[in-house]
Structures are given as structure tokens and as C-alpha cells.
């Protein structure tokens, strides 16, 4: 083993299927633009293959490939091997996959004899021929071919010779990779390691074998590592372990292990740089944002709790030497250590975040303790300042006496109405009235929710327009500001369910900022977040010496 | 391997630390009565040991042991080995642990030389002597002794002889078990397997070795299995994988693997019966209920998605033979199969789901194609029917001509207002007017958003109340129905961002159903979901022969 380290590292390939198998997660349905956004993040991360979907299977996947983003990674179209009774050239399902025009094509086919005879109902040899012809067809078109050997491990356990024959046929026909799939997630790590070792001993080349596992026994990561230990050189998985049933092998957990931990770190190289690895936590959270999911706190490496030290013994040892209770440096994956707020580390973290907001506070300033207390109290009410940095800044400014009252909201009223229009069609319309006091003057503004095309955009839209409509001398400053995203989550505030709204705003100077509002009333929560978005913009453009209201 | 099966199975012991290490989870703080409730559930499940906490370390743990429930399982008090400079008899921290009066006592001590010299600052031999004396003290009091060897794997990698010496001292002093702990969660399964094998070869008896792992690389379950493969015979873990940082080894995933899957099922016996295993999903959900957490859908074996088949190819095969895509029977762990709708679903999937809704449609019925088309079109607009089974049923009924129009909504209007009250405090209030036609009669209803305590619950609350307030002869049927959850997300509908609302409702007969609404206007999306919730309830309680409106 020790002489391994001095050898040149072997290349290990990472194949991401978040956009295909990840979409099989219950409740997950990506839009075309979300697929493009995730593909871009995967490409920046440095995976080798991005499986984009199944062209022809649904409109979203087809639309994604029609306007596929340019990536350094090999964009891969997924499909199934040609059906019996027609040639590869004349199979319309396969043609739709080929027509996506990707550099790489991955087709799934059966490796378990029982499925061939019982699900497909064709002779075993015909299945082998379908696979061979499909792979040859891809290669003949000048593309890179992959074969996903479905149910490989169950198939191998029942009929090892046939499972191996199927794989060999795909390789002989020119497939770059044969991917051994544990489709129902039932194989255990020791089995996977043993079987991969056996098929390599039987002549399948390890550097053309991939592994595709599922988490049905919570062993998908371990099964992937066992396959690599046995000689496989490609891993298929998804970000945050998305995927059918219990999910696929979690690349967000596998990537740091492969890059940071032995024997993998010395033995292999991947397409992922240390710099990209340091962005992994951000990529993981971005995906949760897109899916409007609460990030899993206990996720390996990237979870908010992954480096949180609650036990008193651990926390004090960590201060002396982090390696005592941390197996890797949290910064290496872009994560941060959390030590209970009450101690010194809590305050230095706070000062760091204040500095990022341009607020310099000396160590030991009693305002630090007050800010921490207010954040704790607000979080108990359902607020979250993880992403709402602008709201965090406003809270701190208020505590530090550095937040002017530009204007005062006296009251507002929003109406949502749905009724038949003159063409007897049900239509809805919202209208908002906002009353503010600016420079001692009371101003009433009213706006409705229709966009340029006459479509109703709802009460929050009407409210946003009415609020910004007339703020006296501040109105001009707000002209280049607009709302870019709006996220709603039901959460716990004390003992009641409350609504948390996070609003992302943008201005003509390229700034982008997030604010948060919480209330049992969703319109009111939105109003609070809108109000803070405007306040933050006014602090930036009008300074903090103002006291207009 | 094959002759193994005919041998008598070996006993494998399960040690639960949900109440001690599980309490180190960020955000988790059990009350004394919750601890008792969990202990009872663990005892019914059949684990061998229940670690209840650290007597003396905090008031909750002390109170739990003072009124400890009677259990068949061995209730275990946790603590640390005696400190230097005093005898075991005179260490007050250890005395508090012993005074809990449990049959079994588990003490943690250091197995890594670096921690002995740097954290404790004592000679290596003195640490060994502290461990020996502590174990001997427990045994002398007629109790069963366990030693948790902290940082064992890191210690073994740095100084194998010392790590083994520490363990041998504990065993020689009478400890029933030495538990090899991977305290910082950094060891990988192959390392754990190799090291456990080496220490057994060095003379430590496998049937007196336990394994304690953490999930920092998402390998805690696999590391536990690797230790058992190598000869260890006790596993420590927690329910739902609670625990410090990324959590401990998840017993909820390990137990079904050990009982249902080979080689474990034939090779070992545990204290857990098949009947208790069939209650595992319920135990897992109960713990989430206590912690007020949303259960993890993708959890192995017990998650709501664990047997959900979304891919069309999978779903149709499952209908022929469940074993094709299920590695175990969902009923064996008390879970259920779900075949959700999605844009990848086939007709057989659809028929299965229609049958679940009580709608029998013959294969080949052209309505199947129409229903699928409508679902696809609605999903493109932003709807999702994965969880909204009631909305799915209504859509299908409409297409099949089996949905009566109980009433007709003519119009509605909702007002949200925020202003100062007479005490000069900002308050908000929503009011909803709904106009419906029932049995040819027009009915106007108005409701406001205040709950019994006078708190504003927002516009959707007002709308829900107004809608249900007067529906003529149907009102009575709706009396026992109420809204239990409300989920909002912003999603893509065509090219525009729209709001998707999912509402969960419940009635007095224990039914629970989910409906979905989509609109750019959040109030309108909520209204649609509310309306469908009422329609579904009326279908159930009034039948489908009605045509009232």
C-alpha cells in the first residue's frame, strides 16, 4: 500500500445525474431554466459528465437540450437501448435521444436475466443484441457511448455469466463506460466490493466500469467507495443525494471524501479543484434554494450542523486544537464551525459578519451582546438571517444607532378580488393603497397588480408598486430597483405556524440583496421584507445621516 | 460462507444512545417525560441497552434516572472514567453516575495517546490505570461495565499498541464490552473493517467489542456493518441518526438491514422481533413528532419516499412484480408503497393510482390518455400531483364525468389591512367575502382572520372560513373538517414565476388529504386549493350523484 503514494494518481471520473435521476425525487420537478442553472453550477464544480435528462420523454427535458448551455463537462443525453423488432436507426425513442445532439449518450438496458424474460419477454440473446446494436449506433454517429447495466448486482447474484456477457457486449460494441447499477438499492457495500472485484477478475476492465447506487439501506456512498476500492473508475451520483426513493449516491458527501481523505486523496485525481471544493457548501444550498427545501442540517460536510460542537467537552477542546474533534477543515468545503453563541467565538463570528456589512465594531462593545440577543429572539419567532444579510445589517444598524428613519408607513390596505369580467371569464385583480409620511408630508399611493400584458401578478406585486410609488425625494433613488425573487416558507414561530418570506432585490448598479419578513399573515410578512429591501437601498444611496420622516 | 447458514446464529447486541448522544443534535433538547416516552418505545422495539444520559451532568438527565421507567432492556448510565489524583470511590462525578443505580454503567475514556498527553496532560500509563480502576469499581459494585474507547480509530492509526493496551486494561478489569468509538466521524468503512480485524487478531475478543460511529462522511451505517463483518458484536447508534454534528449510526436504517438482509439475517439474532420491526416506521415518526421535525422523506426503510416509485418504467414493473424495484417488502418495516403521478408516468401507473382513489378504469379506456394529457399540461403550468392525491382524484373524476358540481363560486374579495389601533399599535386584519350559488340560491358569506386569541391569521384563513361558512345543505358535512398544513413555493408556470400552494386537510373521521392550487396571485392559488379540499370532502360524504348548483 505504501508505495501507492509515490505512483502517479489515477483519474477517477464523476458523473452527475441530478438533472435526470435526481428529478425522480418525490416532489421534485425542475423547470427548464432551473436545469440550466444547475448545469452551470455542476460545470463550475468540475464534474466530468452532466446527465441532462431524457430527450423526448417530457417537454422540460426536450426544451433543456434544445437550448443546452455550453459546458466544459460532457453533457449527456439519457435514454434506453433500442427495442426489439426494429433497428437502432428506426427506433423513434432512441432517435429522440440522439437528436438532442449531445457529445455523450447513456442508454439503460437490462443486465438481469429475470427482467429480460419477465419484463421484456424476449430471449436473453436478443437483449444482448439490442444492447450491442444500440452502442454500435451511438459510436457510428461519432458520439461517446455509455451503457447503464440496470439491476446489475441482482442479476449477477442470479446469473453471473449473463450479467457479465451483457456488459462485455456493450464494451465490445464500443461503449466507453459500462455502469454497474444497483437499481433497487438493495446491495450492501461488502457485496458491491466483492462483485466488482470478481467481474474485473473475469476480464471487464476497471477503467471502463462505473458504479451507480441508491441509498435504500443508507449505504449508497459506502457502496460507491467499495466499487472504487475494487477497481471501478467512474461514480454516478447526485447533488444532495437527490433521486428515486431514498436517493442516489450523494456526490456532495463523496467529493470531499475523495479529495480530502486517504487513501483516495493521494491515489486519485478528479476534475474538481480545491477552489471548487471550497464552493461545495454554496452549491448544495443553492440547490435547496431552487427546490425551496430546508437544507439538511446534519448533511455530511455541507450541513449547518456538520461542524457544530454542542458537547461542552468537545467545544473547549476545539478551541485548543480543531483537529481533536474535526476530521477535516470546515473551510475546505466552504462550511463554517459553529460553537454556541454565548462564548467568545460567537462574538468574533458576529464581528466578522458586521465587517462584511461595512460596520466596524470594536471587540468587547456591549452592542455585540445586544445584537446577538436580538438575533436569537428573532430566530425564535421564525426569522432567519442565513441568507437575509440585508435584514441582518438593518437590525445591527438599528442597535448601533446607525439607521435613519427615511419615512414612516402609517397604514396600508390590499384587496384581492376574483369575479367574472364582461366576457364572462373569471379574472382576478389586486389593488394596494399605502399611506406614508415623508419629510412631514402624508402621501397616499395606489397601485394594481396587472403587468404590461394585463395579467394579475397578485397582492405582493401591487403592494411593492404602491410602496415605492411616491416616497418624495427618495422615489428617484428607487427607480432602478426591482424584485427578482420571492420565497415563501411556512415555519415555526414560537408555538404557532408562521409564514417567512425572503425577497431578493436588485438595482441598476448590479447590487443584489435579500431581506426577510415573518408573520402569520403572508401579505404582512411580504410587506415587511419589501420595506426592508427599500430601507437597505436608501442606506446605500442616501447615507445614514438622513432623518426625513 | 455457505456452511455459515446451517450454524446456530450468533447474538448481536444493539445499544441505543438516542437519549445521550442523540441529545447532542443541534436544536434537540428532550424533556424528562419525553425521555421516558422514548425509552418506552425503544424497549418495545427490543434494543438490548438504553443509554439514558449522564446523571449529574444536567437536571433533565438526573430527573430521568430518578424516576427511571422499568424496562426489559438494560438501562445504562453514561459518564467518564475517574479523574487522576483520586480513587474511583472518591470521584464525585463518577459517584453521581453510580448513584443513578442502573444495572449497567458505560464510561468514556481516552484511547488516543495524543489526547492523553495534550488534553488530559497526564502520563500514558496513568490514563490506563484510571480506566482499569474505573472498570474494576463498577464490577465491584455488582454492575455491568462498558468502556467507550474515545478516538479509538485515530488513536490506533497513530499508536496501535497504546490503543489496544487501553482496551485490554478495561477488559482485564472486568468490562463486559469495550466500544471502539470513531469520535470525530472521520474513519471510512474499509479502515474500520481492517482495524477491527487487526485488534481481534491481536487478541481482543470480538464478542466483547462494540462499534460507535458518526456520520461525518455519510458512512456511519457502513462503518458499523464493516465492524460487525470483522467480528464486533455490539452496535451503538440512535433512532433516526440523531447525534452530535452529522449524527450517530442510524439504528432505524441498521435494524432492518440486520434482520432482513443477508448475510446478517441468517448469521445473527438480535432482541428485535419481526412484529417489532413492523412497528419501526411508527417509532421513527413518533420521534419526529416529539422533536416537532418534518420526517425525512428519503430516509432508508422508514421514509415516506422509501418505497415511492416515480419513474414510469419502474412503476409499471412494480405492478407486475414488486421485487423488481423493491429490495424488501415495505410492510416488513411498517411502511407503504407509493406510486405518485409525474410527467414520466405511464398508463399502468395511472390506473393503479385511480384504483387507490376508488376509480376503476379498464385498460385501454381513452379517458386514461386524456387524464395523462391534462396532468402533463397542468404540471407545465406549475401544478404538482406527487402529494396532492385529492386534486389528482378530482381531475380524474372530472374527466370521467364523475364529479358533481355541488356549488358554484360566483366571486370573492379579500382585504388585508394594516393600521394603528386605538392603542397606537400597528395591527393587521384580513376580511373575506365569498359569493356562491347552491341549489339555485345565491349566498354571501363574510369572515375575518382573527383566531380565538384575537391574533390575525391572514387572508387565507379568512377566505377558508368564509368559503365554508354557508354552503347550504353541505355546511353540516364540512363541520368536522379543518386545515392542518399549508405549503407555499414559487415555481415556474410556463415562462412566468407562479405560486404553488399545497393544503393538507383533516376531518373527524381521521381522513387526511392534500390539494394543490397554482396562480401568480398567492391568494388565488390558496383559494383554488381550499376549494378542491372542500370538493373532495363532499365527494366522500355526499357521493357523486349530486348536481346541486
TrEMBL record, chains A, B:
SUPFAM superfamilies: 2-isopropylmalate synthase LeuA, allosteric (dimerisation) domain, Aldolase
One of the GO BP terms on file: L-leucine biosynthetic process
Superkingdom, taxonomy of origin: Bacteria
Family per similarity comment: Belongs to the alpha-IPM synthase/homocitrate synthase family.
Protein name: Citramalate synthase
Pfam short name (any one): HCS_D2
Pyruvate carboxyltransferase domain span: 12-278
Catalysed reactions listed for this entry: pyruvate + acetyl-CoA + H2O = (3R)-citramalate + CoA + H(+)
Keyword Amino-acid biosynthesis: yes
EC number: 2.3.3.21
PANTHER family the UniProt entry points to: (R)-CITRAMALATE SYNTHASE, ALPHA-IPM SYNTHASE/HOMOCITRATE SYNTHASE
One GO MF term: 2-isopropylmalate synthase activity
Keyword line: Amino-acid biosynthesis, Branched-chain amino acid biosynthesis, Isoleucine biosynthesis, Transferase
Pathway in which this enzyme or protein is active: Amino-acid biosynthesis; L-isoleucine biosynthesis; 2-oxobutanoate from pyruvate: step 1/3
